[in-house]
Amino acid sequence: MKYLISLLFTINFLNASMLLDSKNICIDDFYYKTNQFHYLDSKTQSWYSFNSNTYNLSKTIIPNFIYDSATDKCSPNEAYILGMQDTEYNFLLGIVGLILGAVFMFFTTQIFTTVGGRR
Known about the structure:
Blueprint: H1 2-14, E1 16-20, E2 25-33, E3 36-41, E4 47-51, H2 54-58, E5 61-68, E6 73-76, H3 78-81, H4 86-117
Antiparallel strand pairs: 1-2, 1-5, 2-3, 3-4, 5-6
């Protein structure tokens, strides 16, 4: 089970991309080095670079996008569509899971109590 969960997390993180809004392209990774901005394009899987001011460029990188190779577009993640941050979306999913788990446990113990009480 722990391998399945690790695999699901890995698959989820592998297709996470970012939108470089200043150039309107989807990127997988980026780094700064000596006033050069280097980024990995999701479409071609090659590294490109250009001169830039790091403070202004970091504001144009938008996370939570997924690159779809079939349509060749960057689409926003579900949490981004709902207007939430990742932490808020994960918190919402956790609360829903706890509520469903509590309801399941309540009715399970209710059934076992009524069945065990009969003779």
